[in-house]
Amino acid sequence: MNQDRRDLPPLETLIFFTTVMKRGGFSAAAPELMVSQAAVSKRIRQLEDWLGTPLFDRGARHAVPTDTARRLEEPVRLALDYLTASLDTARVTDTRTLQIAANGAVSMFWLYPRLQAFATSPDACNVSVLTADDPSALTADTLDLAIHYGDAPPPGWTGTPLFNETITPAATPAIAATFSDRPDLPLLDYPRLAPDWINWRIWHDRKPGSPLSARPVETCRSYGHSIGRALTGDGIALASLPMLDTLVSSGQLVPVGDDTLTTTRRYWLNHRVTAPLSPNALLLHRALAGPDTV
Fold first, then answer.
1. Looking at the domain assignment, is residue 294 inside a domain?
2. Domain containing 27: what range?
């Protein structure tokens, strides 16, 4: 049997069609397909134009499948399953463990929760995390991805900004409610391992009228350690947002006072310019930075 490419609609339209049927609507299918609702509608319209008949009644509040759509659903799904299984027998899979690096606080409070979600997704693969507060360790040639802090990616690296940085003093709710009655409560500081890190000395320089400036300062082992001690009620730490948004939104930490400091720096998800992303690294990048970033 001779086949012409015009005998079949674009493969992507069939995938979108089966996902819409499975999820029960354009809006519900969009997150799984990692596109907008408008993009889903556009692909379905493309399939309808190819078939010459509508597949969904768009007049209702939710798109309702037509009889044609219901008849097509099972054979299209079976055909896609068969195609996927056939291709899997020939595809060379990337089984190498991905290497991603980040500093201790980013790893603990931002990266690990997202890696847990990635590990339970259909795109899961083996991932190894290098945690280091020394910025020079985050540019090793063996890394597939790294999260860097600064105005731009390091030389030889390129990537995507994850989020800007706003810093605010923070403590547990109990400490925040009573800190004015406890002048001996310390400010939890940490070693500045890079000149662009902001610790309490830099905070006081930028906020000369801060009511916290007279408090004693205790230096912790690392930034992550200062946040950990704040969580146990040992003092007031400098919370970097949105990196610590989960702790703030859950109520484990709350701002102390109204002062904030927005820096010009960002956290970046980067890879080496000379090492294009592997298929698995691309999936991890999209899971961390968003589907439209690369």
1. no
2. 5-88
